[in-house]
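If I may wish for something, please walk me through the protein I am sending here so I can picture the backbone:
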Amino acid sequence: MTMRPKKMAAKFMISASTIRNYEANGLIPPAERSSNGYRIYTDRHAAYLSCIQAMAPAFGMEVTAEVLRCLHQNKPQDAMWIIRKKEVALYEEKEKLERLIQDIRIYANENKSPFAEEPFTINEASDLTQVPKSAIRYWEQAGYITADRDPDNRYRRYSGSHLLKIRLI
């Protein structure tokens, strides 16, 4: 089955210019041209557009574009590995967020941090939260976090509640 750009766009509820942009950026195969120069789209193009609409909300356009380019180059194994790596990253992020939600609930219900009560250095805070020290310092400078200071040496000291806040940011 063949379709003109306007009809294909209507089928996928996108604009014809979006389809042309996808074609120009290599996300869908180049369209054949009719004798009068109009683009002609096929079921193959529809399959690519369906893939874009299915993948982009979950994986983002960058990953979707990379996968489609692999498919366009007849490299389905590479496409599958790209998807798998992204699935693993999304799963790890989900697990991290679930742990954070659980820790926040503990803090809200029991008014205690899941971390030890002793203060942490910036190195320890960075290791425990997996946030770079530079980001923690920047957030402190921006006023998002106010670390306590050791009275003897003025080093930053972070409490368990500070660590929750760092993880949230």
In short: The longest strand covers residues 32-33. The chain has a mean pLDDT of 90. The chain has two domains: 5-92, 113-168.
